[in-house]
Amino acid sequence: MAELSENKTPFHLHHWLPGLLLTIAIAGTAAWLSNQSWLAGAGFGALTLAIILGIVLGNTLYPQMAGACDSGVMLAKQRLLRLGIILYGFRITIQQIADVGLSGVLIDVMVLSSTFLLTCFIGIRLLKMDRETVWLIGAGSSICGAAAVLASEPIVKAAPSKVAVAVATVVLFGTLGIVLYPLLWSLLPTVSAEHFGIFTGSTLHEVAQVVAAGHTMGAEAENTAVIAKMLRVMMLAPFLLMLGSWLKRQRSHNAQQQAIRFPWFALLFIVVALFNSLHLLPANIVSTLNQLANLLLAMAMAALGLTTRFSALKQAGCKPLLLGLVMFGWLILGGGALNVLVQHFMA
Hints:
Keywords: Cell membrane, Membrane, Transmembrane, Transmembrane helix. The chain is mainly α.
């Protein structure tokens, strides 16, 4: 199935509506499922469930509806994704930085940068994987899982199958971390709840997974884990700006490569976070905006799943899973070492 480009998507409501309604239905179903205790306890958030449902439909019923739905599905996957990332800034305030201190910020920066660079080295140089898949897995492992993969997609310009592979990889190992991190916590009785919470938030993939793992370890560990995680999420925008700038320079050497567009949505993400730090909006409005961001991101996930084919996933082979496994081990061991190092010298 040919993918419609963003510039060629027709600006007519009757073209958009069928696909948008389909992605809304999938997103709504995913949100309902994420509130079921047997799934919520396992750390399956609405974003993860939306792409799973989208992939199932995309490989069964959707090919028969693609002609009518493609325009709306591509709108959700591209433009609504950007809007969802911008609104994601309402989850963050600058004041949260002070809650974990400079050491927490430094740990997040070191874990993010080392994880992404190591992913690129192992994936591209050692495993000889395609660059787009490696960059997306690196972004998801380094920052905030599936949301970071989706946010990086407009800059990397990867095929839907590569995006889905990256999402599946970070979701798989992040979900495994929900079980593993509380087990590690029980084996390290001398480590404080605050420090282990920072370790959890600075190394585990998804926000939902951090919440689930932290909740198992107690309120203090959960609170510091969530704050450390949100600091990583806050680094999404500068990461996208640096990635976009680097890719633009790399691709400028090849005349056949189309120069990437400046990621204005990343700057708007920062602006929204700064505005949210002023606490000018009532809590109920911020809550509504957060719910809207969840919906838009879930619609984007659903659209991504709908445009993914199992045949393409099969062609990816075992290398993405191997890369994800290696980086999962790095996040636990290397990320743990960075946590100990920074906390020791900044105590």
